[in-house]
Fold this sequence. Notes:
Elements: H1 2-28, H2 35-52, H3 59-87, H4 92-118, E1 126-128, E2 137-140, E3 143-146, H5 147-164, H6 167-177, H7 179-184, H8 189-212, E4 218-220, H9 228-238, H10 243-262, H11 267-271, H12 276-294
Antiparallel strand pairs: 1-4, 2-3
Helix pairs in contact: 1-5, 1-6, 1-8, 1-9, 1-10, 2-3, 2-4, 2-8, 2-9, 3-4, 3-8, 5-6, 6-8, 9-10, 9-12, 10-12
Amino acid sequence: xxxxxxxxxxxxxVLVLVALGGCFSEHSGVINIGLEGIMVMGALGGAxxxxxxxPETSAFMVVVLTVLAAVALGAVYSLLLAxxxxxxxxxxxxxxxxxxxxxxxxxxxxxxAMNTSINPNNVSSTIQYIAAKKxxxxxxxxxxxxxxxxxxxxxxxxxxxxxxxxxxxxxLMACGEHPSAADSVGINVYKMRYAxxxxxxxxxxxxGIVYITAGVSEWKFENGVAGFGFLSLAVMIFGQWRPxxxxxxxxxxxxxxxxxxxxxxxxxLMALNLPSSVYNMLPYIISLVVLAFTSGxxxxxxxxxxxxxKGQR
Length: 313
């Protein structure tokens, strides 16, 4: 049971971080379909940091530098969406889809080139971080606490305060609801949308490194992040673009994802004699079922996906 709770919390942490990133972007009026690609880029930055840090680096510095590398690369990569969708008014869905394809492909090519330069016989897209990963883990009896769980909780609390208790958050949401009205009172819609997308890049990049370090000590980048970016979008929609509901949705989806890792520890699940692939599909099946019954009542920000043109007010 402790293992189930452990995996549920770490996968829920990934979903919370990435779904909150999508929440900020969409509240500003930009649909971020590219969260999958942003996660891959964040995972790449964090994995490279974990791989190349000297062994004598303190655990605290390992955590700090890895988080900084992940959020920095995630934020930089999200600028592709910001520039294309906000400045050039490109179709946000197409740009996001392209970012997903580019993210996995670029990470794979980069890692393969790096591995080949170090060892000509190594043409894999795998990065190992066996020893460095231990800096994130704390043993509490039979439970393995991960510092990323705390970071996700902090991000959740900060997101709620930022969106609903600060001038910045209220202005951001105004740009996603009625950008012309926001502009009429002096709010720079373009800047706010850039800010929303950049925040989504920061949180998405962090979610990427959390995902690839959840239970494994190496990652093959040609696998991407197994659709977790899209699953996070489902969590965001099911959570109605609200941080508190997103947290509950993330726990639900995280539980079903965790079952694929620990179902062998439950006799009644083993007695069902289901193939492991069924458990791997569970979170995605659940997301389809949940969205089929709830998406009709969803209330997205009114101006999301609509490029803002100041001259058409």
